[in-house]
Design a protein that fits this description.
Shape of chain A: globular
Largest sheet of chain A: 6 strands, antiparallel, barrel
Low-confidence stretches of chain A: none
Distance between the termini of chain B: 11 Å
Strand content of chain A: 25-35%
CATH architecture of the largest domain in chain A: Beta Barrel
Helix content of chain A: 25-40%
Number of helices of chain B: 6
Radius of gyration of chain B: 16 Å
CATH superfamily of the largest domain in chain A: Rod shape-determining protein MreC, domain 2
Oligomer: heterodimer
Strand order of the largest sheet of chain A: 1-2-5-4-3-12
CATH topology of the largest domain in chain A: Thrombin, subunit H
Number of strands of chain A: 12
CATH class of the largest domain in chain A: Mainly Beta
Radius of gyration of chain A: 26 Å
Chain lengths: ~280, ~160
């Protein structure tokens, strides 16, 4: 009896069992962190704040071979794209001059109408250009890491935009890199207006899929192709910035095709917009 | 088994490399966290080396910080795939590639279901089934080629020693 107990104790205290027990303890700790939603606590936010740039620096060095392969493939794709664009340019060269005249005359007409309607000029903001250093947009927790020479001017919730429209907002930053939460992130919520009739709604990120708009009272009046812009409510994003257009409507479910494709961008702009300063 | 200590270092580096490559590769077809899980599962780890558990835990945290997944997500995955083999060892289930693959396949299927339903329940979001399942299928397809490669490397190393 005593001998068998000793054997059992010896088995438990054997090196392989100890490793097994340690692995189980660490596994349980990980599960507690994950299921207990540790990332919502202030300590987790601080941990991310201080370690993001360190982990980025490590990954930047370690992933150098991947980067070289990726940039090589990218160069080939870009070169092919340039040749295609050159062909297209040659084909469209003749029609371009006529289109240019048309655009100029339309711009003049718009200026005249705006003058007649006494419209105020669009709001303009200072902006800071930043380089995208890591892109995680194809995950359901879509984010990007950006680097700027003027990191001291960045602040949390700063709106991020591309050349055509809004992309997301800054969620964390330190002295080297900042993280931008993209509009397709499942945690993203953005107050928007749809079409010229300004139907209000909340756009919700859907991971790799197109975001959807919910809480629209007049959803029956929404048509495919309607423009979606920021409403400015909530004070984080300036109003009337293009978000995308309605891609699909299924009852109350309104799907939005975003105007900006972050995978095509190397740089983004961060808008120095603060609700109180603009006195809206 | 102690002969594998140096090769452990090589595999630690491979895991760090794969996790770090997240900043370069942004594809819907490849989930590098799942590929790391596959490597952890295939490897024949040293039975008495307690550092492995600590390293896997830290690598998980590193992955979570880099990719912005919730804390504990990657480390619980890594340790789960590490523990499966240990449990098999303690329960004395015979080591057979097909059985191992079947266990991996079932694990991937349950992981996919848990992920999919968690997102549905917590975020009220139904992500496209097709897009979500692709990375899991890719990892399952990669099982045999990777198993063959890693086993060859590990066996060769032991033979040389």
């Amino acid at each position: 009896m005593r001998l068998s107990r000793n054997l059992r104790v010896q088995k438990i205290l054997s090196p392989s069992s100890r490793v097994f027990i340690l692995a189980i303890i660490l596994f349980v700790i990980s599960l507690i962190l994950f299921l207990g939603r540790f990332e919502l606590t202030q300590s987790a936010k601080n941990l991310r704040l201080y370690t993001t740039s360190i982990s980025y620096s490590i990954s930047y060095i370690v992933s150098t071979p991947s980067k070289l392969i990726n940039s090589g493939i990218q160069s080939i794709v870009d070169l092919k794209e340039i040749y295609n664009q050159l062909d297209e340019y040659n084909r469209n060269q003749l029609t371009d001059s006529a289109s240019f005249q048309e655009v100029v005359s339309m711009k003049l007409k718009i200026a005249q109408y705006e003058d007649l309607l006494n419209l105020t000029a669009d709001q303009e903001y200072d902006f800071i250009t930043s380089r995208i250093v890591a892109n995680f947009s194809n995950k359901f927790i879509g984010t990007i890491l950006i680097k700027s020479d003027e990191t001291e001017k960045l602040f949390i919730d700063m709106p991020a935009a591309g050349p055509n429209g809004i992309l997301g907002r800054v969620t964390s930053l330190d002295n080297k890199v900042a993280r931008v939460l993209l509009l397709n992130n499942i945690n993203s919520r953005l107050p928007v207006i749809i079409s010229e009739d300004a139907h209000q709604g909340i756009m919700i990120g859907q991971g790799q899929n197109n975001p959807i708009i919910e809480y629209v009272r007049e959803y029956k009046n929404i048509k495919v192709g309607d423009l979606v812009t920021t409403s400015g409510k909530g004070g984080i994003f300036p109003p009337y910035l293009v978000v995308g257009k309605v891609a699909k409507t299924e009852g109350e479910r309104i799907e939005v095709e975003l105007i900006e494709d972050v995978s095509q961008l190397n740089h983004i702009v961060l808008l120095n917009y603060k609700f109180n300063q603009n006195n809206e | 088994m102690n002969d594998l200590k140096i090769s452990n270092l090589i595999f630690y580096f491979i895991l760090i490399f794969i996790i770090s490559s997240n900043i370069v590769f942004n594809s819907i077809y490849f989930d590098l966290t799942l590929i790391s899980c596959l490597i952890i599962y295939i490897l024949k780890w040293n039975e008495t080396n307690w550092i492995i558990c600590i390293v896997l835990f830290l690598l998980g945290i590193y992955n979570d910080i880099l990719v912005f997944t919730p804390f504990g997500y990657a480390s619980s995955l890594f340790l789960c795939f590490y523990l499966i083999d240990k449990v098999r060892y303690f329960l004395s289930i015979p080591l057979n590639t097909n059985i191992k693959f079947l266990i991996f396949f079932l694990l991937m299927l349950s992981l996919f279901s848990i992920n999919y339903f968690t997102i549905y329940v917590i975020y009220h979001t139904s992500i496209s089934l097709f897009i979500s399942i692709i990375p899991y299928m890719v990892v399952i397809l990669l099982y045999f080629p990777l198993d063959f490669t890693i086993s060859s490397i590990q066996n060769k190393y032991v033979r040389i020693k």
